[in-house]
Design brief:
- The protein has about 150 residues and is mainly alpha-helical.
- The protein folds into 2 domains: about 1-65, no CATH class; about 70-150, no CATH class.
- The chain has helices at about 1-10, 15-25, 30-40, 45-60, 70-100, 120, 125-145, and strands at about 105-110, 110-115.
- Strand 1 and strand 2 form a beta hairpin.
């Protein structure tokens, strides 16, 4: 141990800085690791810098190292197609139910035209129709928001 301290004292900071990339990558020999660790025990400033750099490296993992499943592209395509299909359906149903709920019925009674709005005269049809229309529109906009991530 005494011998390592003497060697570490003889090694300059520049040599340790040259060895740091090998040490942090885990590719240095055990003797080199021991030498660098001994120097880092004595130099608090360099030890803090190495710790900060190792945290930054852990947070910045290159995308090429990530394992991507082989069928990811096909699953993404199917999911996007399904979302587009549901978007069209909810748009169509939302539009149809909105028109129905805001419309009415007209007929002739004793030669005079009579018109009834669903909203005013048939609330038992208006309320469910309007609530279904609102539900369709909410789903449509949720799907639209989800598709924004695919830029479609």
């Amino acid at each position: 141990m005494q011998e390592q301290k003497e060697i570490a004292m003889k090694v300059s900071r520049e040599v340790i800085l040259d060895l740091l990339p090998l040490y942090t990558a885990g590719e240095a020999s055990p003797a080199t690791c021991a030498l660098v660790e001994e120097y880092l025990r004595q130099d608090a400033e360099l030890r803090g810098q190495v710790q900060r750099d190792s945290v930054k490296e852990l947070m910045a993992v290159p995308a090429s190292d990530a394992k991507i499943p082989a069928d990811l592209e096909m699953r993404s395509l199917r999911r996007t197609r399904s979302l587009l299909r549901w978007q069209r359906r909810t748009y169509g149903w939302g539009l149809a139910l909105s028109i129905i709920s805001l419309s009415g019925a007209g007929y002739l009674q004793n030669g005079h035209p009579v018109f009834h709005f669903f909203m005013r005269d048939y609330p038992q049809f208006f309320v469910p129709c309007l609530s279904l229309a609102i539900s369709c529109w909410v789903n449509y906009f949720v799907i639209l928001w989800r598709l924004r991530s695919t830029r479609l």
